[in-house]
Specification:
The protein is of the alpha+beta class. About 55% of the residues lie in helices and about 15% in strands.
Length: about 450
C-alpha cells in the first residue's frame, strides 16, 4: 500500500452507513432463513393434513373400486387441488386398479405395514410425500401422494413475489440510514466549522455545551491546545513589544553618541556614516516590531473606522516622498477618483507609507511610481504600481510573510513592511493582492476595500 493511499481521507458517514446496511442485510438473511424453515415446516403440516383428509374422503367414497373414472373426476374437480397437484391410487393386492391421471402405474408404497400413515418413497427419480390408508375388511388401500417439488414450487413462487418488495425495502433502509446518519453527524459538521473558523485572532474556546458525548474529549483536547496556543502567542507578543520598547532608548542614545563621535573625528566620516545607517535600520526594525506587536492582538471590530478623505492623504504622501524621488530622478504621480473610504486614518497612512517606501527603495533611478484611488467593480481600490525590476511570480506569494526578502535584492530592509500592510488590510477586511506593475513591468500592489467602504 502506498503512502498516498494511506493518507486518502475516508467518510465516517459512508462507513457507518455500510456497517448499518451490512448488519441489517445479514440479520435480515438470518431472519429470512428462520422464517423459511418455519414456513416450510408449517406448509408440510398443512399439506400432510390435506393428504390425510383426501385419503379419508376417498376411502369413505370408494364403494366399488372397479367403477372406472371415479378418481379422474375427483382429480379434475378444479380449485386448489390443481395447484397443490395431489395424485391418488387405489391398490388391491399390490396392484393399482384405479389412479388419477398424474399418478404412476405402480403403487407409491408396496411394503407399508401400518393401517395408515405417511411415507416418503422415491418413484421414477422423484420424491413423493404419500399418505396410505388401508381397509382390512375389503382388502384394498388408498394412497394419496404429492411431489415434494410442488411444495418447493410454492415456496419459489412466494420468493418471486417477495424479492422485489424486499429489495425495495433494503434500498429504502439505505436511504433512511443515509438521512439519519447525516442528521446524527450534523453536530460533528457544526463543530468542524467552528474549528475551521479559528485563527490567531480568534482563539476562543469551542463551546462544549450541547456537544455529543463522543465529541467532548476531542473538543476538550482542542480547547486545551487553543488555551496553550493563546498563552504562547500572548507571551510572544509581550516579549516582542517589551524587547522592542526597551531597545528604542539605547538605540536613540547610540545614535546620538555616534553623531557626537562623528563631529569629534571628522576623518572617520565614512565608517561613522555606515554605522549610523545600520543603527537607523535596527531602529526601523524595532519600530516595525512594535507596530506588529500592537496590531497582532487586535480584532477587526476593534478598529475605529471613519470616513477618510483620500485627496489630502495622497497629497501628503507625495509631499513626504517627493525629495527622495527628486534625488533619484523618479516620477511620482497620484490620481484620486474617490472622495473617501471607511478606514482607520492612522492605519491607512501606515499602509500607504509602507507601500511607497517599498516602491522607492527597490525601484531603479528614473523609475515611475503611480498611486491611484478609484472604483473597481463597484469596490474602492487603492493601488501602488511601478515599472521597476519587479518580483517573480513565486516570490509574490510570499511577499507578506514576516522577515521574507526577495533573493538578490541589494537594498536594506527588515522584511516586515508588507507584513504590517497585510495585517492592517486583514483588520479592515481589505483584499491585498500583488501583480505586475506599469506597462507589464515592475510590481503592482492593490488594496480592494469592502463594497461598503466608500461613503
Amino acid at each position: 500500500m502506498t503512502a498516498s493511499a494511506e493518507l486518502t481521507p475516508w467518510s465516517l458517514r459512508r462507513r457507518l452507513l455500510a456497517a448499518i446496511v451490512a448488519a441489517s442485510t445479514v440479520l435480515w438473511l438470518a431472519s429470512l432463513g428462520i422464517v423459511t424453515i418455519i414456513a416450510w415446516h408449517e406448509t408440510n403440516e398443512v399439506f400432510d393434513d390435506a393428504l390425510e383428509e383426501s385419503g379419508q374422503m376417498l376411502m369413505a367414497a370408494t364403494t366399488d373400486w372397479q367403477q372406472r373414472g371415479l378418481l379422474e373426476r375427483a382429480q379434475g374437480a378444479g380449485g386448489p387441488a390443481r395447484k397443490v397437484d395431489m395424485q391418488y391410487q387405489i391398490v388391491v393386492g399390490g396392484k393399482v386398479v384405479q389412479r388419477s391421471s398424474g399418478a404412476p402405474a405402480q403403487p407409491f408404497v408396496t411394503d407399508f405395514d401400518d393401517s395408515d400413515g405417511f411415507a416418503d418413497p422415491q418413484v421414477a427419480q422423484r420424491r413423493w410425500r404419500v399418505f396410505v390408508i388401508r381397509d382390512e375388511q375389503r382388502h384394498f388401500e388408498v394412497q394419496v401422494g404429492q411431489q415434494y417439488k410442488k411444495r418447493y414450487d410454492i415456496l419459489e413462487e412466494l420468493a418471486e413475489h417477495l424479492w422485489l418488495p424486499i429489495a425495495g425495502f433494503l434500498v429504502l433502509l439505505a436511504l433512511v440510514c443515509w438521512l439519519l446518519t447525516g442528521r446524527v453527524l450534523k453536530p460533528l459538521r457544526a463543530t468542524a466549522a467552528a474549528i475551521a473558523g479559528k485563527s490567531p485572532d480568534d482563539l476562543a474556546q469551542v463551546e462544549p455545551a450541547g456537544q455529543p458525548r463522543e465529541l467532548l474529549p476531542i473538543v476538550q483536547a482542542l480547547n486545551g491546545v487553543l488555551a496553550r496556543l493563546d498563552t504562547a502567542l500572548q507571551s510572544e507578543r509581550r516579549f516582542t513589544a517589551d524587547a522592542a520598547h526597551e531597545l528604542r532608548t539605547p538605540l536613540a542614545g547610540l545614535h546620538m553618541h555616534v553623531q557626537l563621535l562623528q563631529r569629534q573625528h571628522p576623518d572617520l566620516v565614512a565608517p561613522f556614516q555606515k554605522l549610523r545607517r545600520d543603527i537607523a535600520r535596527v531602529t526601523a526594525l524595532v519600530d516595525s516590531l512594535l507596530t506588529l506587536a500592537r496590531l497582532d492582538p487586535l480584532a477587526r471590530g476593534q478598529l475605529a473606522s471613519q470616513p477618510v478623505m483620500l485627496a489630502p492623504v495622497l497629497e501628503n504622501l507625495l509631499a513626504l516622498h517627493a525629495p527622495e524621488a527628486a534625488r533619484r530622478s523618479m516620477v511620482l504621480a497620484a490620481r484620486c477618483e474617490l472622495e473617501s473610504v471607511e478606514a482607520d486614518p492612522a492605519m491607512l497612512d501606515i499602509v500607504l507609507r509602507n507601500l511607497l517606501d517599498n516602491a522607492l527603495r527597490y525601484c531603479l533611478d528614473g523609475s515611475r511610481i503611480e498611486l491611484v484611488a478609484e472604483l473597481h467593480a463597484g469596490r474602492p481600490r487603492i493601488s501602488v504600481r511601478d515599472n521597476g525590476p519587479g518580483v517573480d511570480q513565486a516570490s509574490r506569494q510570499r511577499l507578506s510573510e514576516r522577515f521574507f526578502r526577495v533573493l538578490g535584492q541589494q537594498q536594506s530592509g527588515s522584511g516586515l513592511g508588507l507584513s504590517i500592510v497585510k495585517r492592517i488590510a486583514d483588520l479592515h477586511g481589505i483584499a491585498l493582492a500583488f501583480g505586475p506593475g506599469l506597462d507589464g513591468r515592475g510590481l503592482g500592489v492593490t488594496l480592494d476595500f469592502p463594497a461598503g467602504a466608500a461613503p
